[in-house]
Amino acid sequence: MTARDDILAALGGTAPAGTIAREAAALLLAPERPAVDPSAVETEFLAKLSLPSVAATHDKIADLADLPAAIARYLAVHELPPALYLPPDPRLDACDWSATKAHDSVAPDEPAALAIARCGIAETGSLVFETGPATPMLPNFLTLHHIVLLSVSDIVPHLEDAILPGAQPRAHYWVTGVSGTTDIEGTYVRGAHGPRFLHVILLSRQLAA
Question: How far apart are CA 53 and CA 178, in angstroms?
């Protein structure tokens, strides 16, 4: 008996004995926690970013000083002006932003904004952000192009690995891919409730706390 036969039989009230048991057993075939190679979390994370359901792009830099140039490349590819919102994170002060018009206030139609992720999750390609004085939340939802800086050393294998011990921020939020909806006549629309583009810049070195 096929799965279709099982469904039709259940709808007609004539499901054969053992149907529920078979369905329960089928759910157990796939592991609840997907396998992730701890030695290849960067590779697996990037693979998830490239999935159509996530639809993110990425770049990689060796040092934080290379960040402005990487952002400038991205803005040029998308034919955007050399300008973006920067969060008030003191770690960004060491960068040379002279070639980019960086500003600390965000507009409702902000073209591009930078954020620093607390960690990335290889299992899903998710990015985890924490709110705080240096990491405001609103700009990450207003911008069209969400540019995210993430240290390679901050990529963890699984979802539960993203919950670190110790004091927690007032709030944190997880982003998996670009904003999208199919509410409008069943047609997939990107950017309906947030950024239309997600670009992750991986930093090879550990980002100082």
Answer: 8
Distance CA 115, CA 137 (A): 9
For residue range 54-77, what is the model confidence (pLDDT) as tens digits? 989 999 999 999 999 999 999 999
H/E element, 59 = strand 56-61
pTM of the full predicted structure?
A: 0.81
Each residue of 99-121: pLDDT tens digit? 999 999 988 889 999 999 999 99
Instruction: At 81, list the tokens.
Output: 């002006």
Distance of CA 19 to the CA centre of its chain: 39
* Separation CA 113–CA 168 (nearest Å): 25
Distance between CA 117 and CA 202 in Å, rounded? Answer: 10
Measured CA distances, 143 to 30, 65, 119 (Å)? 38, 24, 20
Tokens for 10?
Answer: 């259940």
Residue among 149, 78, 66, 68 nearest 111 (CA)? 78
Nearest to 193 by CA among 140, 132, 147: 140
Euclidean distance between CA atoms 23 and 4, whole angstroms:
12
Inter-CA distances, 153 with 39, 40, 42, 63, 171, Å: 11, 11, 9, 13, 22
Which residue is it, tokens 């934080």?
A: 64
Instruction: Read off the DSSP letter of residue 206.
Output: P
